[in-house]
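Wed. Picked up where I left off yesterday with non-reducing end alpha-L-arabinofuranosidase. The coffee machine is broken again, so keeping this brief.
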Amino acid sequence: MRKFNFLSLSLLAGLYASHSQAQKTFTVKVNEPVVAIQPTMWGVFFEDINFGADGGIYAEMVKNRSFEFSKPLMGWATKRKQEGDLLVLHRKEQTNNPRYLHLTARNAAQGDLELTNEGFRGMGVKKGLRYDLSFQYRQPATGITLHIALQNSKGEVIGSTVVKPADGDNQWHKQAVSFQATDTAVKGKLNIWLEGTGTIDVDMISLFPGDTWKNRPGGMRGDMVQLLADMKPGFIRFPGGCIVEGFDLSNRYQWKKTIGPVEERQLMINRWNVEFPHRSASDYFQTFGLGFFEYFQLAEDIGAEPLPILNCGMACQFNTAELVPMEDLQPYVQDALDLIEFANGDVTTQWGKVRASMGHPKPFHLKMMGVGNENWGPQYIERLKVFTKAIKEKYSDFKIVNSSGTDPDKDRFAYLNKELRSMNADIIDEHYYRAPEWFLANASRYDSYDRNGSKVFAGEYAAHSKGIGSNAGINVNNWRAALAEAAFMTGLERNAAVVNMASYAPLFANTDAWQWAPDLIWVNSLGVYGTADYHVQKLFSLNKGTKVLPLTWDGKAIAGQDSIYASACIDEKTKEVIFKIANVSAKPQNPVLQLEGIKSVATVAESIVVKGDLNDVNSLETPDKIAPQYATVAVKNKKVATTLAPYSFTIIKVKMQ
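Structure written out below (tokens, as returned):
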């Protein structure tokens, strides 16, 4: 990422000082809608970074449950009487997850033969909650008893049960048991000790909380999904991000390896494990318990359009830049065609049948797909054309999202933007991780874009408060960054004829195990909170509207004059005119909102305000330091006299009559 010279907000605040002395009247013409706003306008972007899947939204509490990490016992502490009492062996019949533990108990009692799992930076345990434990086992005869306990950081038991596997036929079986926690712990752990004499093989030791999303066994963290559902996003993009590319092609994301029975999904190192030496995470792997089926299901649950991104035959160009030769590209193209069939195909088709076997006979109604992530250069265009031809020939109405590289400008972007538009690309994915000032300066970025050409997906963006990239300092999610994003987003809404989709990135981060900041939602083992940026994104999504309305000050769009940025839309379903206004200056401002082209409106409007000091941040301790405040404001003669607080984002909703 490139570095930028930072301008102060106060400097930008003075750019249009001449306007500040005159009465500000913002005029909206309600009877002259400009263009429809797509239902997909505001969405979310998920990538398995910052322990966003394993250790995050995927609710599995046991780290390295199948002993397939590069170090088989990573995450586990063990006790044994003799060295040979605990061995790591391989199942010949299970090629995807072959490792298991062979345990030998010799008249064992507590302290003789034990396994303790630390979880993902500690297990979050809630008092009174049910916990569901399962494991696979094989034993030649009965005689072993397993004592299972949740412990707090002091080693005190805060929930326990006892299991005596009943089958002694030397075949693999699955055992499940549930028990309740008697206390709460942020840094808990799972302890298992063996009693008796004999041998037993164990694998896939798994623990889930009882409050998963929709109470699905082996599901997702309910509190994290709820924050997504509360946003009502128009789409969810998955699974990334750079993990789509991989640091080389062997490390790329392959969707077919993420479906089917969980125990048959092959674990892989997460590319963020090794990406940043200063934020190393040697225990970061992908179990794919959260796979493509679960992503589609999540999108369906929260009412969002699914947007999968597939590898285009190119590894990360910042890492190895490995390429698939053109003559070997067909399997990658076939993966794309097969994914559409998996999502949409009838149950009689090959991949539709697989979807049905996983419990979803009805199609997921996939309408779009990304080919490549942040890929660039002529080698990308060459491969993209092959994908596009194959997909369009079979599914003519299917939309393809195309990469414009890593930057919003410079030669790399200019080349791709020109090539893609000459190809009549459906959607071009633009990314911008930049300083807050960049977002203010680019609120008019799309004013001059061709209204009839390729559409834009603002696929990854975030204002970085200290520098671009995680090695440039800790980029906190402060109000300065979120306010700049709000200002920029008014420009996206104003240009909905060009911009059809937008999503902040990344989505999730574990407070104890992150690699990249800033991020929209932060979690630990027990808690979750939305950042200031989250509240901005949520407010835009919940107040999306259906059509853009022309909003002007002195006949011009409001994009920085006197440090104000604004847009307006109409919601034909709720019959509301919705104003969105960012005041990025240190002074209060008092514009009058004038509604024209309508006979009458309600006499009271709803006001939603987010404000704070520029350095304010939310946290697990103070999750609502920056949060919306709701009030009402009078409407007289189709005018709303507003007061915009310093450094504030305001939404005014006026009911039409």
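Quick read: DSSP finds eleven helices and 35 strands in the chain.
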